[in-house]
């Protein structure tokens, strides 16, 4: 009987280990696809083209009542720390992508930025879809989200259900690490990880 328990325990352990390994390997191989979207000024922006900077990638929708604005607020404080260090903009940039391109027009994103005191200086891009090609661009956003295993869904009431992670990617747009959104976003942890990857 003991032998059966040992075999079962070993099988469970190996199954868990295999599952963890799968997710670690999957994340380690994640790469953002090169694609063109529209930024907060209404200009086209080629995501994934720049191979000179780290990128902190955040997914949001501006009608979100809690976790998205909380995350953006915490990232804006992180931005100030990185500016003091002299690396924001030349060593790392921030990319915020709307998962609700129908409602989050460039004008809406600009207003969202203003509400958090975020400078429109080109170092923090807020991306959405082109109004004339919204269905196509919605698919592009889905592809970017899928590449990082970020999941989201609109149940029909305009309040999206979504994953709760932000992502750090390297100069070649490959996944480095993910961090919790909302109140669990640890600014110091993200700051340390960025410095570690830059130095």
From TrEMBL:
Residues 26-199 form the Thioredoxin domain. Pfam families: SCO1-SenC. It comes from the Bacteria. Keywords: Copper. Coiled coil: none annotated. InterPro entries: SCO1/SenC (IPR003782), Thioredoxin-like_sf (IPR036249), Thioredoxin_domain (IPR013766). Belongs to the SCO1/2 family. This is SCO family protein. It comes from Neobacillus pocheonensis.
């Amino acid at each position: 009987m003991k032998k059966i328990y040992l075999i079962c325990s070993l099988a469970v352990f190996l199954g868990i280990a295999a599952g963890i390994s799968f997710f670690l390997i999957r994340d380690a191989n994640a790469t953002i696809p090169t694609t063109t979207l529209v930024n907060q000024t209404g200009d086209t922006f080629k995501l994934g083209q720049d191979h000179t900077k780290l990128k902190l990638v955040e997914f949001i929708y501006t009608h979100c009542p809690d976790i998205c604005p909380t995350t953006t607020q915490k990232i804006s404080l992180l931005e100030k720390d990185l500016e003091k260090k002299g690396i924001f903009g030349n060593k790392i940039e921030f990319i915020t992508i709307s998962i609700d391109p129908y409602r989050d027009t460039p004008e809406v994103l600009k207003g969202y930025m203003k509400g958090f005191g975020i400078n429109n200086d080109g170092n923090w891009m807020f991306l959405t879809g082109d109004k004339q090609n919204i269905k196509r661009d919605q698919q592009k956003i889905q592809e970017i989200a899928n590449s990082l295993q970020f999941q989201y869904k609109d149940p029909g009431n305009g309040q999206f259900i979504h994953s709760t992670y932000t992502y750090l990617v390297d100069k070649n747009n490959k996944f480095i690490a993910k961090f919790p959104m909302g109140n669990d976003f640890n600014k110091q942890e993200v700051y340390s990880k960025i410095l570690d990857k830059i130095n």
